Amino acid sequence: MSGRSQEEGLKDLTLLGNQGTQYSFEYAPEVLESVDNLHSNRDYFVKFNCPEFTSLCPITQQPDFATMYISYVPDKKIVESKSLKLYLFSFRNHGDFHEDCVNIIMNDLIKLLDPRYIEVWGKFTPRGGISIDPWCNYGRPGTKYEEMANYRLMNHDLYPEKIDNR
Is 57 a catalytic residue? Predict the structure, then answer.
């Protein structure tokens, strides 16, 4: 039995445990769901790694593949992981540049969760001999998380990748 009660956000979930899940092949931010954060009295990171992220080039319609890394410090809400999987899957036929994809993901999660801090990093596989690895972050304005975001932005790439550690 779950340690959470239905009153703590479980009753509102529609995807987790649903055997009739519908997969959207078009960008679908409406599938994102959240639950109450029962530990909002402390800071902690939640990290997701999605090694099978796919989107399309908006010009050529060729597929782009990436590992998408999402890390955030929650406040009152946490994202429900199955809804996040379905949301990320919905980019499958979405045509946008890599930089747009990571910023769209971050913006949608900010809208859903109002996190204290969040960062999204897309490590796209090379196509045409070049990889593009956009990274973006956000810290709640006027708080220590805004300072954290500025610090991490200025220092996020202190150890650049080498050709053999990709």
Answer: yes
Percentage of the chain beyond pLDDT 90 is 74
The overall longest dimension of the chain from CA atoms, in Å, is 52
pLDDT at 12 over 90: no
Which one of 57, 75, 96, 100 is the catalytic residue?
A: 57
Q: Is 79 annotated as a binding residue?
A: yes
Please give the distance of CA 130 from its chain centroid, rounded to a whole number: 23
Quickly count: other Cβ atoms within 10 Å of residue 31's Cβ: 21
pLDDT in tens, 106-122: 999 999 999 999 999 99
Strands (E), the chain: 34-36, 46-56, 63-73, 77-79, 117-124, 135-139
**64 part of the active site:** yes
> Annotated binding residue at 99?
yes
